[in-house]
Write a structure and sequence with these properties.
alpha/beta; 17% strand; binds glutamic acid; globular; 46% helix; Rossmann fold
Length: 415
Amino acid sequence: MAQDNSMLDGTIASVDAAVRSLGLEDDMREVLVEPWREIQVGLPVRMDDGNVRVFRGYRSQHNAARGPYKGGIRYHPNVDLSHTRALGMLMTWKTALADVPFGGAKGGVSVNPRELSMGELNRLTRRYTMSIHHVIGVNRDIPAPDLGTSAQTMAWIMDAYGSINGHTPGIVTGKPIELGGSLGRAEAPGRGAAMVACRAIVDSGSSPEQNTVAIQGFGAVGSSAARTMFDNGAKVIAVSDIDGAIINTSGLDIPALQRIVIEGGTVSDYTDADALNHEDLLSLDCDVLIPAAIEDVITAQNAAGVRSKFIVEAANRPVTSAADEILVDANRIVIPDILANAGGVVASYFEWAQNIQVFNWDLERVNRELDRKMNEAYDITKAKADRNDVSLREAAFDVAVSRVAEAIKLRGYVG
Ligand code: GLU
């Protein structure tokens, strides 16, 4: 799929720019770009109607120089090997920038999970787990939720993996709290994205209270980003989900909207707002735009229409490389995904550490440590961007790539 290759090409282009700016050798560039291991599996699943459907599953383990592979599992029709590879590579840079002791990986199944029953999803997830169980492990590769998967999916993986290896809660993160999940993990990607957005707002001489916000996506990431922006005093004026978009220029009541969605509703069920076109949300007259849904939504075609000063990549790679150039040239501040949405994997690290220690942290500790990690990642990125007069994306990749290259050298990985 063309859009998938653009994501892989764009990610590699960011690595190449870092390789040049850091003066790394060509040999090192190859080791940094090539995935270290990949697996593709056929997944026959008995559907509720009695027929068998064979799904395609993937796990791309990009790099484990800094620790076990780490990254989510995506259930989406766009999933293929190239797409999974691009997302796995992004995880390597994200874990390095956040300075958590992991490498990067991503997995997925090409499926629209909305079309499957819970029973079908359970059987598909077990089959996928059985097909990749020999390449994952607490010290090998630790999956987590991503688009189209959830805490429930992680519970099924933990159960299937445990049926072979014995009870192993640290095999996945983003689990239900009842099964060893961490308090604060579900909210962490959105909380982290909002936190770095607020840091950038303050650095530009403004304050969250003076800023209006539009958010594309009101799932796990978008809704907690909305909530944290709201709690910090920003005015969230527009949000969307897969079924619709809404706007109220006086500000949306985000806690009320969250209650509607938790009870099974959609953002369109919120009555104190007008309906909005999905596409129009991206070009709204507002200060902060948070794409929190899927990749490739701000492209060369629509980037010039984006009016927000801050674009916060809460989703993975929502801004294409061509769009990024247009936005940076127009003096917009793009907070790159490997920084903006690192909160998820940072909290995953805390969950994994809690599982290994068999000792649970309270929410206050999770949020305090999360805020510290996010602030450190923001600080080092911003300082580098200012020092080298480059974009936040270039600075973030410089920091991440140099950390991974250093680990590869110290290991003597290339003999
Ligand atoms: N899927 C999330 C991401 O893209 C979380 C990964 C994890 O926690 O391992 O960052």
